[in-house]
Amino acid sequence: MSSATVSFVVNDDPKAQTLTQATRDKVLEAVRLLDYRPNLQARSLRTQRSHSIAVLTDELTAVPYENSTIRGMQERAWAGGFMVTTMTTGGNAALAEHAVEVVLARQFDAVIVTTAFTREVEVPAAFDSIPLVLLNCFSRDGHRSVLPAERSGSRSAAELLLAAGHTRIGFINGLRETWAAGQRRLGYRDALRAAGIAYDRTLVRWGDYQTDSGHRHATVLLDSPNPPTAIMAGNDRMAVGVYYAAYQRGLRIPEDLSVVGYDDHAEFSAHAVPAMSTVRLPYYEMGRAAVDLLIAGTPAGDAPPTGHGLVTEVECQPVARKSIGPPRSDPIAPSPPARPRDQARDDAPPENPT
User: Per its UniProt record, what Gene3D superfamilies does this chain match (predicted)?
Assistant: First the structure.
């Protein structure tokens, strides 16, 4: 057996496809018996490819659904013969500039730029010659982006409540200036319009994604002269605040009030009582999708998609649990919290829950 034949199989060269399966099996068996490991550095020098993808992120958190993005990227990259290297800049401009230099110096085959929160970013001009995908962020420069389909996800949340018979649905959205909150408001309006229900501004509140924010705004909605029969929140954390406001008023979920969250953060949604209906952010699938786009754009892959502003949206799936029921036949009567004010204050959710 020639050294060229062995090289074709070990290096997964396309020419290996010209060999018989029996020949390839013999080579692989010899590799296994000899415990042979190819010299990846030497291969990189020969092929001018590192078989690696650089991931630049502004922040790594301990939140499981955000870390699942990394898992999605790694699993898809490994399956395609690539390694993922993650560099965190922490919002530090000098560190971000250094990370760009590292990517160029180490000759990464491709780059993923990702952010903890969906927002617009400015892509360094130095990356113009490298296949690049923006993950959970976007730019005005025509770079390919992978984003969660927030608008349709919010619409699906509202549709869960509409399907249960609710027509007066409160919405505690996230921070007004964020892209995700803007998309979710549009999805909420889309669902109401499709159902023939007028958009009522008095039912829409702008929170800050924290539990106490959900509690505060739910209090306003539930104590209004004509309270909603259901409330959807911009994330599960604020939905927990809605649960607490309902509990203070002696309202049962879902018998008296239906609630839908967003994110499917299991710490809040799956373990709430009753279990919270929500919408799952597809972080794992987004990570895989970003790598798929990059592998197609590397020298070994097909030509990458072309066009300015090309966006791949990954669907956010509704998760129906136990927090949705039909609306009460009689309207909810507005009432103050059932507990004394000083005790209710002591029991209020913390300002910045962990």
Answer: 3.40.50.2300, lambda repressor-like DNA-binding domains
- Domains contained in the chain, CATH given: 46-141+283-314 (3.40.50.2300), 150-281+318-347 (3.40.50.2300)
pTM of the model: 0.77
Question: Which pLDDT tens digit goes with each residue over 104-117?
Answer: 888 889 999 998 88
Banded pLDDT at 86 (limits 50, 70, 90):
confident
